[in-house]
Amino acid sequence: MGRTRLFGSLCGLVFLVNLARIVFAPLLSVFIDQFAIGEGTAGLIVTLAWVGSASLRLPTGWILTRVPRHYVVLASGVILTIASAIAATSVTVVQLMVGAFLMGLASGVYFVSANPLLSELYPKRVGRVMGIHGTASQVAAVIAAPFVAVTLLVDWRLSLWAIAAASAIVTAYTWLAARRTDLPTAGTADRDLLGAAKTEWRIIATAVVLIGAIAFVWQGLFNFYELYMEAKGLSSGMASTLLTLVFVAGVPAFFFGGDLADRLPHVPYLIGIVLAFSTCLLVLTIVGSVPAIVIMTTLIGFVIHTAFPAVDTYLLDTLPDVTRGSAYAMFSSIAMLVQAAGSSATGYVIEAGYTYDAVFGAAAAVLILIGLGLFAVDRAGYLPGESSA
């Protein structure tokens, strides 16, 4: 019962830390008007949230070799509360960027500490637990656009104040739940961050390659999805609905994707996701009718969100207790830095005069080549995938 309570509180906290990262996407047009900035600068605000998410992941991994995981999870909730309040009081673009960076920072600290903790709370059901946890995170992405739309009836700052207040409450409950839980000791031998990285570098590198490129493209896609759909001739209301749809499709994707990650070979499954996503994206750049766009939006949303529980399960199920937390932190830090630049890169390329269809069509073609290359390397037996636990 204690572990179930703690798991529930972590699902609440992951909902908030992911909302803190996603909330800036539906606010981009507001920022462009409010602060008189271009798409490139607006994209940089989002990028800073994701750079913040990457920035402390590696130091957090070192902290986890000295401090119990649940203490670090609680610290992330405190950071999120303070950071959201800072962003909500922004009067300049620079202050808003600082707030976005700190909100992202809180999410990075959370994921690096919470995911290994969850895998150790339920070691026999890693994929299922990561899927449920990811589903809670994805619900935040689903409600982000309508949540912002409602708060805009009052003030865009209300959305950030709401995150601050909710994170304070959920963090306090998580503290109480952790105190009443018999916590696992599986990670107590994990005390050498760099040693773990050296030992498990092949698994870390494989995971980064598998998820890095697809996540880079995904960052640029979803943060500019509304503007992309408007460029295809859809109304702003329809564009907003499609942004919501791409995240709605991710809710069942996390749940079923996590379950499949327990059942299928990890690396081939991930390569299949890369190829499926890139193919769907390429088709999206070609179609123009509303029904076709809706179908491709749904497929893209479903496929991309199966990737995240899949890669987490691959790492957390394959890595042994003695290196799990440190190696996962190393992977998480590198992968997040790679994908964080996706939003600003897309914004600057679009601002340079290239069309959305051209940009995402080229990205899809590159991803297909990467996926086929990974398939060939895996068939040759060079990618690690067997459990070392």
Quick gist of this model?
With 389 residues, the protein is an all-alpha fold.
Q: Using only CA atoms, what is the Rg?
A: 20 Å
Give the helix proportion (percent range).
over 70%
Runs with pLDDT <50, length 5+?
none
> Structural class of the helix and strand makeup?
mainly alpha
- The fraction of residues assigned to DSSP E strands is under 5%
Q: H/E order of the elements? A: HHHHHHHHHHHHHHHHHH
Distance between the termini: 27 Å
Mean pLDDT: 88
Shape: globular
Number of strands: 0
Tell me about the largest β-sheet: none
Number of helices: 18
Note down, in words, how this protein is organized.
It is a single chain. The protein has 389 residues and is mainly alpha-helical. It has helices at residues 2-22, 28-34, 39-55, 57-64, 69-88, 93-121, 126-151, 157-179, 193-199, 201-223, 225-231, 236-248, 250-263, 266-286, 290-318, 324-340, 342-351, 356-379. It is globular, with a radius of gyration of 20 Å. It starts with a helix and ends in a 10-residue tail after the last helix. The longest helix is centred in the first third of the chain and has 29 residues, at 93-121. The mean pLDDT is 88.
